[in-house]
Write a structure and sequence with these properties.
292 residues, mainly alpha, two-stranded antiparallel sheet, globular
């Protein structure tokens, strides 16, 4: 984050407070590890208003409004159940197909939407960031946080679906907040990389939908991770959403893979994405205003 320095000059004739001239100079960070995370707390109210603005803009002048949050994963669940379940007969770890697919689509829809919005957020706010100073990290952070409201609605439908099929979440459900935090950190970490790159190279926004589509195929959304051979499980776990999706299924139903080596590999990958993304975003922050 840019650093702020204050210089004061007092005239010899008058040393009253009214005669003190104050100059505020904003400079980009000079060290790679100078993240200045404390500024996020200082600007926490601005973060709140960005989140609130995103929610209002997202559903302004829409026909079905918030219902789209439920319809999107429900329609995908119906397609997956028909083609991958009934026709292709892919295994579902003993779960009903609707529960198997919706428990993956709820966290995946949140992640894909948060990643897409975080990628475009810097360019979409170009008029704001070229006129006033605030920690630019607030922009991608607000994008991933605003999606939590949509996820809460979809999760309520998921919980009703699980209970409707006679499944009862147990103590495993205590893992859900950690798994959600893992999905948020993944979207933020990758979003920091893509949002900074998108400010420099505008074709990044065209590559992002392909990346999201490929990522979904590489994640256990339509199939269980048990289909992956054991010797490749550690490599498969480097996809952070693998641990999140399998963890959600296990936490809600008690079936599937329990958090273990797969989730540990996902957590390590998330940490790498997040730390690397924050450092890269910081280095690009000084030139983003000129690039957009």
């Amino acid at each position: 984050m840019p650093s702020v320095h204050t210089d004061s000059a007092v005239t010899a004739q008058d040393s009253t407070p009214a005669s003190i001239a104050t100059t505020v100079r904003i400079e980009p960070p000079r060290a790679w590890l100078q993240l200045r995370m404390g500024e996020l707390w200082t600007y926490r109210e601005l973060l709140y208003f960005f989140v609130w603005r995103d929610l209002k803009v997202r559903y302004k002048q829409t026909v079905i409004g918030v219902a789209w949050v439920v319809l999107q994963p429900l329609m995908s669940m119906g397609v997956f159940t028909l083609f991958f379940g009934r026709l292709a007969k892919l295994p579902s770890d003993g779960l009903p197909y609707p529960v198997f697919y919706f428990s993956a689509l709820a966290p995946w829809t949140y992640f894909s939407t948060a990643l897409t919005t975080a990628t475009n957020v810097v360019v979409e706010n170009q008029r704001l960031i070229t006129k006033v100073y605030f920690p630019r990290l607030i922009l991608p952070l607000s994008s991933v946080m605003s999606g939590l409201v949509d996820f809460a609605i979809a999760f309520a439908v998921l919980l009703a679906l699980v209970l409707g099929y006679g499944l009862r979440p147990g103590v495993n459900a205590l893992w859900l907040p950690f798994l959600l935090l893992l999905a948020l950190a993944t979207a933020l970490g990758v979003g920091l990389w893509l949002s900074a790159l998108n400010a420099l190279y505008r074709d990044v926004k065209y590559v992002t939908p392909f990346l999201v589509q490929f990522w979904m195929l590489a994640s256990p959304v339509a199939y269980p991770s048990s289909l992956v051979p054991g010797k490749w499980q550690w490599l498969y776990g480097l996809n952070p959403m693998t641990g999140v999706i399998e963890g959600f299924r296990w936490a809600l139903t008690g079936r599937g893979q329990a958090p273990g080596a797969l989730l540990l590999a996902s957590a390590v990958a998330v940490a790498a994405f997040l730390i690397g993304g924050a450092l890269f975003f910081q280095r690009m922050e000084g030139t983003v205003a000129d690039s957009v």
